[in-house]
């Protein structure tokens, strides 16, 4: 054991690997599968939703000030820029919810299948849930598209 | 409760949110679809009349309250987890900050929901 100690008498330190890419490593650290980018989108949509929530609670509490104040507030938020922002919030929720269903299922082992012998080509847990992933993302795309159509109609109606 | 318990609670809150926020989003964003199906009538979903009617309903009030509490817990738990990756040694202040902020929004929101139930 003494032979492993360095000249200063300290035990050998592990190499500094953790966090060496910093926050940039969230975006790319080489050969990420599709699911890694869903993880990133999950974070971005989640942060957007939790930042929006207190603002939303505050704005909708304007109902307590009576019909005139409510109508005036809603006239402000009927502007196209806010309607488009609400569509982004809807899209963030749809993606976060459907991707979250996949994550919860995987967390409880539902999508992972039974353990098998590691014979080449090796089974990969991610590949087993890839069909579910594409089904959920397809559903998210359809729902977000429907929301976009509804928003477009509302915008045209308000002129 | 240890960290596993808080994590599991955030998963359960997430599952509950798929249903609660799902209903909220369908009602708010797919009003035309609901009308075409004949599942909703009356004034536009964002008019004061419709908002006040939902506010005075016990079912909507309880739904909004649960939605707010689950969303705050799930969202702030997740936000804390992300920030802990950036500042791993700030666990205690981050937890305190998230609890204080969440409690403030929860209190404001629940008081609003209860007052709205009373119709004031």
Radius of gyration of chain A: 24 Å
Stated plainly, the CATH topology of chain A is called: 3 helical TM bundles of succinate and fumarate reductases
Secondary structure: number of strands of chain B: 0
Helix- and strand-based class of chain A? Answer: mainly alpha
Number of helices of chain B: 5
**What is the correct CATH architecture of chain A?**
Up-down Bundle
Q: Tell me the overall shape of chain A.
A: extended
Shape estimate of chain B: elongated
Following the backbone from N to C, one meets helices and strands of chain A in this order, namely: HHHHH
CATH class of chain A: Mainly Alpha
What does the average pLDDT of chain B come to?
A: 94
List the defining traits of the structure above.
heterodimer; A: 159 residues; mainly alpha; 3 helical TM bundles of succinate and fumarate reductases; 5 helices; 0% strand; B: 120 residues; 83% helix; elongated
Q: Could you please describe the fold and organization of this structure?
A:
The complex is a heterodimer of chains A (159) and B (120). Chain A is mostly helical and 159 residues long. Chain A has a single domain (33-158), classed as 3 helical TM bundles of succinate and fumarate reductases, CATH 1.20.1300. Chain A is built from five helices and no strands. In chain A, helix 3 (80-107) packs antiparallel against helix 5. The longest helix of chain A is centred in the last third of the chain and has 29 residues, at 130-158. The radius of gyration of chain A is 24 Å and the shape is extended. The N and C termini of chain A lie far apart (79 Å). The mean pLDDT of chain A is 87. Helix content of chain B is 83%, strand content 0%. Chain B contains five helices and no strands. The termini of chain B are far apart. Chain B has helices at residues 3-29, 31-37, 48-56, 58-86, 91-118. In chain B, helix 1 (3-29) packs across helix 4 (58-86) and helix 4 (58-86) runs antiparallel to helix 5. Chain B has a single domain, classed as Up-down Bundle (3 helical TM bundles of succinate and fumarate reductases), CATH 1.20.1300. The longest helix of chain B is centred in the middle third of the chain and has 29 residues, at 58-86. The mean pLDDT of chain B is 94. With 120 residues, chain B is an all-alpha fold. The chains are: A mainly alpha (159), B mainly alpha (120). Chain A binds chain B through residues 23, 43, 46-47, 49-50, 53-54, 57-58, 60-61, 63-64, 67, 70-71, 74, 86, 90, 93-94, 97, 100-101, 104, 107, 146-147, 150-151, 153, and chain B through 11, 14-15, 17-18, 21-22, 25, 29-33, 46, 48, 51-52, 55, 68, 71-72, 75-76, 78-79, 82, 86, 101, 105, 108-109, 112, 115-116, 120.
